[in-house]
């Protein structure tokens, strides 16, 4: 994965893009339900704020991070819901989305600065095992992509993507086995080949050139798959090999429960 400053610049740019989706929303729109069951647009932004708070603390104050992260492994869903409260409560009490947006912006800027300050090669503590700062930044991009897509889908907005997606694609390839872990399955022993086409038309290749198990297709579709924001039937992804084909059903680039995902035909193919 490229250097820390490159991926953190990409993280900041993606954060700006998600902010642009909500910056001028009417107050009432923050309460609109998103495709994630039970979550409004406000919930999506609160989750991003909580996630960036966790990452910023991990990078800047590992001991404080341990206290924040305690209990996540025992009750993942409960921990996620609990993490939203400090951000949702002021918004719900005041009805002022501006407060929530300001909190998220503060958390993401703090996290970007903290990750950028981590010395090269120094691991950052994380929920399961320490990660290099560039990898943790790429995980943040995955969060922005997925939750940003939920917001865009709610608003009926088509997002334009750039080759910054490479960081997310690399992260998804790195975490290709998360879908198996989430379901208590054993990952195949054979390494996969991934051949992904960037928004610019560039070709990104990962894994052995002679692998029998292959996944190929557009980067945007690949990212929609691994964040489970589209069903595989609505994406232009192809698989060669039984294991690769099965992987398209369970792929996810995040730890924890897979969630409900999306159903075939739930969104128009052009709504990516």
Write the layout of secondary structure elements.
Blueprint: H1 4-22, H2 41-60, H3 62-69, H4 76-94, H5 97-117, E1 123-124, E2 131-132, H6 133-155, H7 165-174, H8 178-182, E3 193-197, E4 203-206, E5 214-218, H9 219-226, E6 238-240, H10 242-250
Parallel strand pairs: 3-5
Antiparallel strand pairs: 1-2, 3-4, 5-6
Helix pairs in contact: 1-5, 1-6, 2-3, 2-4, 2-5, 2-6, 4-5, 6-7, 7-9
Describe the overall structure:
The chain is of the alpha+beta class and about 270 residues long. It has two domains: about 140 residues, dinb family like domain (Four Helix Bundle (Hemerythrin (Met), subunit A), Up-down Bundle), CATH 1.20.120; about 110 residues, Nonspecific Lipid-transfer Protein, Chain A, CATH 3.30.1050. The chain has ten helices and six strands. The strands form two sheets. A four-stranded mixed beta sheet has the order 4-3-5-6. β1 and β2 form a beta hairpin. α2 packs across α3. The longest helix is centred in the middle third of the chain and has 23 residues. The two termini are about 25 Å apart.
């Amino acid at each position: 994965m490229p250097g820390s400053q490159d991926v953190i610049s990409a993280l900041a740019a993606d954060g700006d893009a998600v902010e642009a989706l909500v910056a001028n929303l009417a107050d009432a729109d923050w309460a609109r339900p998103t495709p994630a069951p039970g979550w409004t647009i406000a919930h999506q932004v609160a989750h991003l704020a909580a996630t960036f708070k966790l990452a910023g603390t991990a990078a800047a104050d590992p001991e404080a991070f341990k206290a924040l992260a305690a209990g996540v492994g025992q009750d993942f869903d409960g921990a996620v819901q609990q993490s939203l409260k400090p951000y949702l409560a002021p918004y719900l009490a005041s009805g002022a989305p501006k407060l929530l947006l300001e909190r998220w912006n503060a958390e993401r800027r703090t996290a970007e600065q903290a990750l950028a300050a981590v010395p090269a090669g120094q691991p950052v503590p994380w929920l399961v095992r320490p990660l290099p700062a560039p990898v943790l930044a790429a995980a943040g991009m995955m969060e922005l992509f997925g939750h940003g897509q939920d917001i865009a889908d709610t608003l009926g907005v088509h997002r334009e993507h750039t080759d910054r997606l490479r960081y997310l694609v690399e992260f998804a390839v790195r975490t290709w086995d998360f879908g198996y872990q989430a379901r208590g399955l054993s990952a195949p022993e054979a390494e996969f080949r991934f051949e992904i086409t960037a928004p610019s038309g560039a070709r990104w290749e990962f894994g052995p050139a002679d692998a029998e198990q292959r996944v190929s297709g557009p980067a945007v579709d690949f990212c929609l798959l691994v964040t489970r924001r589209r069903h595989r039937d609505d994406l232009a992804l192809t698989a060669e090999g039984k294991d690769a084909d099965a992987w398209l059903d369970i792929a996810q680039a995040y730890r924890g429960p897979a969630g409900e995902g999306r159903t075939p035909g739930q969104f128009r193919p052009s709504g990516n």
